[in-house]
Amino acid sequence: METIRKLDPSVVDTLTPSIHAFLPLLEKNRATIESIRRDTFQFGVTQRQMLDVYYPPSVGDSKPPILIFVYGGGMVWGERVLPPPNDLVYRNCGAFFAARGILTIIPDYRLAPGAVYPEPVEDIRDAFRFVVSHPGLSAVGDTSRVYFTGHSAGGTLVLSLFLSESPRFLEPHEIKAHVRGIIPRGAGYHYEDWPTAFTTMLTPFYGDAEKSLKASPLGLLRSASQDLMAALPPLLFMHSEIDTVHVLEPQKAFIAEYEERTGKQAEVVVCAGHNHMSEHWALNSGEGEEWGDDLARWIKSK
């Protein structure tokens, strides 16, 4: 973790060093990670519409809660299991939460430039609907206790799923019947002041700069109806201790708006010692896993 603390906190510059810091630790635990049962399902018609399910090794008298884990990648990169030699990510995340008694789902989704908004959000919605309606999965997991967590762009997609009204992705009765919590982690709450390299990439995804602001989680929150706010499940905000200012400042604005709209004090957990890219690499490495335990405890407490 000392290596992570010394890195420049900018998003891109931390990716490769973070990989190099944790990959040897994950390799030492490969057998443990791969011992967790993993099944793959197709929830749509394309290769990007598939999901992996990680099963708790043992369950008690009641069904375990379900966590839908949405990875990030700037809307242009990422998959539920990365290619070798990084093929323990995101298997390490699925195995980590499954080992703590949570049925864990990691879906893929369509990426830009081939996909445009709102197609990836629709993929996350369709993965959710597939899980709660699948007889085999609903027999294993408690579909009345579904939680969503999304990192970076994945957090943007998850928040858009619940905050958008035009289009509306989920009906209020679906949320009430199934969803118990949302955990954005270092999400992109808006991209107004992000570096040009990112905004140039994201503007075509949304259509234009004005649309990207309106369709961002902060834009959606500001325009959300009271009915939507009343149906919003509990939120737990997570971010890395050494996160980039382009995440932390928009998060402050989002939390301020959320607290004003709901009258609730936001719950915030800091992932100690981590930069924007390192937290998910840490799970099942033996170092820097505390944030994962914090998330698991929050889920179990609801």
Name its key features.
about 300 residues; 15 helices; two-stranded parallel ribbon; about 45% helix; alpha/beta; 8 strands; six-stranded mixed β-sheet
The span between the termini is 30 Å
One letter per element, helices H and strands E, the order comes to HHHEEEHEHHEHHEHHHHEHEHH
- Which percent bin holds the helix content? 40-55%
Q: What's the number of extended β-strand segments?
A: 8
The gross shape turns out to be globular
The strand line-up of the biggest sheet is 1-2-4-3-5-6
Strand content: 15-25%
Rounded radius of gyration (Å): 18 Å
Regions with little confidence, pLDDT below 50 for 5+ residues: none
Structure annotation, total helices: 15
User: What's the pLDDT, averaged over the residues?
Assistant: 92
Main beta-sheet annotation = 6 strands, mixed
* SS content category: alpha/beta
Summarize the structure.
The protein is an alpha/beta fold and 302 residues long. It has helices spanning 2-5, 15-28, 30-34, 91-99, 119-133, 135-140, 153-163, 172-178, 196-206, 209-215, 217-223, 226-231, 245-262, 279-282, 290-301; strands at residues 38-42, 50-54, 66-70, 103-107, 146-151, 179-185, 236-242, 267-275.
How would you describe the overall organization of this protein?
The chain has 302 residues and is of the alpha/beta class. Helix content is 45%, strand content 16%. The chain has 15 helices and eight strands. It has helices at 2-5, 15-28, 30-34, 91-99, 119-133, 135-140, 153-163, 172-178, 196-206, 209-215, 217-223, 226-231, 245-262, 279-282, 290-301; strands at 38-42, 50-54, 66-70, 103-107, 146-151, 179-185, 236-242, 267-275. The strands form two sheets. It has a six-stranded mixed β-sheet with strand order 1-2-4-3-5-6, sandwiched between helices. Strands 7-8 form a two-stranded parallel sheet. α5 packs across α7, α9 crosses α10 and α11 packs parallel to α13 (245-262). It is globular and about 50 Å long. It starts with a helix and ends with a helix. The model has no long low-confidence stretch (mean pLDDT 92).
